[in-house]
Amino acid sequence: MALQMRKLDSSDPDFKARLSAVLAFEASEDEAIDRAAAQILADVKARGDAAVLDYTNRFDKLNASTVSQLEIAKDELAAALNGLSPQRRAALQTAADRVRAYHERQKQETGSDGFTYTEADGTVLGQKVTPLDRVGIYVPGGKAAYPSSVLMNAIPAKVAGVQEVIMVVPTPGGVKNELVLAAAAIAGVDRVFTIGGAQAVGALAHGTATIPQVDKIVGPGNAYVAAAKRRVFGVVGIDMIAGPSEILVLCDGTTDPDWVAMDLFSQAEHDELAQSILVCPDDAYIARVEASINKQLDAMPRKDVIRTSLTNRGALVKVRDMDEACEIANLIAAEHLEISAENPQQWANKVRHAGAMFLGRFSSESLGDYCAGPNHVLPTSRTARFSSPLGVYDFQKRSSIIQVSEAGAQLLGKVAAELAYGEGLQAHARSAEYRLK
């Protein structure tokens, strides 16, 4: 049976309402999941290692007697790396090298040491940039294994100067993924614990006798992990609450339609809630992409997931021209934006909101997921309007520097005292006035 994707036309009077319906996604804050996560977090905070052990043994069907048994030694990580086939090890190393090179450049460009400047009266003002001390990275386990997530989360932390990176990854049934362990070795992860779920988030956030407390938790997980991260924010920092994966393809009709169809598949195969949208001014080309979708779908191992995703959340959007396509791209603010066109840069210049932009027909989103270099942890659900990809800056914090000279205190003291009296804070005013000659 042919797959039926929603078709929208920007010239229709109800276009905006129909587009909004396509984009609508409320992160299902299931009350039962939230309650369960809250209970697990409270238990881990109260009982520490004992609670982590109980939940890990129960949920992952393990039989560990201590949490220390759930830590993977550095030599086991090295053995996993050495045990890879030469071809796979080379691919992993190439990906890691490219991710590291990109983030090293990012660190240089953002001014890793901060800045200071001296005013005429000798007052020194500035900013000091320092890395976080310890970071926790959550890596999904179980049915899916994501070595690329290890690289994308751990490498920028190390480039930023984080002293200790603690990785948690569930291993249901005790099954460890060798490529994930190898990625941890290449990325320079300091300690790895085979725990997952809300109990892993709680252990990282509060610390236990065995698992050290971290300053920030990054990395994707299931609904329980997301609920737990939401609840511990404030005790520790978090990167983001990630929604389903998204791709928006702006195409001028010059790219092979089979390529574009497969690019739409590349996000749809993540899960049934993933979103794939094509925006194009050429009606005949849209029809060719739709034909390619139906031609290629049955050969996909995850065809059922792709079909559900494209049917429920996908769309083929006809627009007047590429200028309007860019306007719609800014409205959608997609996680991944492919501009598959003859001159992609001219359209990229018109786009303000996107997690990552892939310019030109050879820049498939999948390259960004694995080895292009820029981070694949990206804002979803239109949050690219106000947030950025994971980067070196997420693993640093800034301290203001204020060194007021005696001369500077004469001017600033009067200003501060006047404003403090206006706010009714006499001690503030007197504190400033004591420095006046």
Model description:
- The chain is α/β, with parallel strands linked by helices.
- The protein folds into three domains: 143 residues, Nitrogenase molybdenum iron protein domain (Rossmann fold), CATH 3.40.50.1980; 195 residues, Nitrogenase molybdenum iron protein domain (Rossmann fold, 3-Layer(aba) Sandwich); 30 residues, no CATH class.
- 46% of the residues lie in helices and 16% in strands.
- The protein has a six-stranded parallel beta sheet with strand order 1-12-11-10-13-14, sandwiched between helices.
- Helix 2 crosses helix 3, helix 2 packs across helix 8 and helix 2 packs across helix 9.
- The model has no long low-confidence stretch (mean pLDDT 95).
